[in-house]
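QA checklist item 7 of 12: single-chain prediction sanity check.
[x] sequence parsed
[x] length recorded as 363
[x] structure emitted
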Amino acid sequence: PEQEQRDTLARMEQDWDARAREAPEYYIATAQRQWSRDEFFASGAVNVDNDILADIAVLSQGNMPSHMRVLEIGCGAGRMTRAMAAAFGEVHAVDISAEMIAAARRNLSDLPNVRLHKNNGFDLAELPDQSYDLAFSFIVFQHIPIPEAIENYVRDVYRCLKPGAVFKFQVQGDTSIRSAVDDTWVGAPLSLAGASALAERCGFELLDAIGAGTQYFWLWFRKPKRPWIPRALRQALRNLWTRTRSAVEKRVEIGFEPRSVRAGESYVVSLPRFAGQMIDIGFSLVAGDNHAPIAGVVARWCALDSQGRATITVPADHPTGTVWITRVRSRTRGGRWHPAQAAIHVSGAEHPPAGNPANSPSV
């Protein structure tokens, strides 16, 4: 019922205002209870590096980032907005909470290319049509319990994006979860089939989807550049381009010795393709059901020997779990990320690793 939706939206606004007054950094990034200012924004820079800049070939659609106007949905206190402002020409960020927007204004007052907007949690009515080159949202829709609100957001993003632009965002993908309208922390779930149907209803093309069935279900929706071309033909052309790109740009082969280590131990990484170079290895790790995915870089600018090998020590406090290696870049090759696919398991110091990452499903 519409009245129930209005009541839930009002409750969402009140609850997020209260969270902003209590501990905004914690409710935005729950990996730790207390954050220093530098740690808080550094964590946002890691997410921008791994979830936006590492994916820039898809997200920019041929535009120069410095010339792009970007829309961020659910900016909170500006954790990722600061790093986005350093990468893009202009960032427009919205949030349902006036308290969060006030905190973001204080945190980002030195950035002239940031525009902050307080919205109603249901649409983007205050933003103009076809004005943005990219839209992005990170751990926001997981907190919206109203499916109609999520769909209305997606439809309004379509209106705001320029033709050909991409909307990359996360939703709750665990369909076993049951959200309630009076719970403003657990959002309504969405299946892969539901995401595909949502894209079609809102006019988007579903470019990609990763993490279906998990709390961190990534979706790439693109606004058709030429919507008058039949959908089936656009899909066929996109499939052809995907196959061509995959054939041209092969994934970087990475080896580990051993494949399972304990926190505090060392392992040898092998990348013959980048022998003798300084590299970054991008990774992601889900440490537990109640934590956001940990993403970052292994041994920043690690020096490989002439055989493409290097010894890396796992920090003693490293979270346990399977670490997925997703991308590699070389300083001497312009710093462009290359796709990779490998895994190494990290176990606690006193317990042997569970399972064999060699048999783990690919991501």
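[x] summary fact logged: Confidence is low (pLDDT under 50) at residues 287-293, 351-363.
[ ] second reviewer sign-off
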